[in-house]
Amino acid sequence: MNIPNSLTLGRIVLVPLVVWLIITHEMLAAFLLFLLAGLSDAADGFLAKRYGWRSELGAYLDPIADKALLVSIYVTLGFAGHLPVWLVIAVVSRDILIVGAVVLSWMLSRPLSMQPLLISKANTLSQIVLAGLVLAELGLGLGLHELINILVWVTGTLTILSAAAYFWSWLRHMASYEPAPTPLPPRQRKAAGLDQPQRSRVRTT
Fold it and tell me: What domains, with CATH codes, occur in the chain?
C-alpha cells in the first residue's frame, strides 16, 4: 500500500474519533482533527500526482473518506442542534440520490460513471468551509454567527442545485444510452454466413 492510500485510510479512521469529540463537546479537538483531515487530503492528492502513486484502490477510497467525514460531521452537528435539520437532510439526501442513481443504472445494464460537475465542486467546497467554520466557532468562539448563517443558505442552495444537476444528467444518460450489440455465438455466426471468407471477385475484360 502506497503513502496516499495510507493517508486516505487514516482519514477514514479519523471519522469516528471526530464524531466522538463532537458528541463529548470537545469542539476544539474536533476542529483540529478536521483541519488535519483536510491537510491529509491535500497531501495524498499531491503525492499521487507528483510521484504517480495513483491506484484503483485510492480512486475508490478517496471519495469514500471525504464523504464519510463530511456526512458524519453534518449529521452529528445536526443532532446536536448546531446545524439546521433541513440542511443535514439535504446533504445526506443528495449523496443517497447520487449513489442510488449509479447503482440503479448498473442494475438496468446502463452503467454510468458520475463525473464531478462545476456546481458539485462549489457545493463540496461550501460544505467543507461551513463545517470548518461551525467547529471553529464552537471551539474558539470567534463570533462567526452571521457568516455561518449566510453560508448555511449558500450551502443548502448549492446542495439542492447540485442534486438537480446530477439527476438531470442521469435522466439524459438513461434516455440516450445505447448498449453495445451482443456478439452472436459462433454457431449462429456460421449459420448467418458471417464467418465465411470473402472471395475476391476478379473482373475479366
Answer: 3-177 (1.20.120.1760)
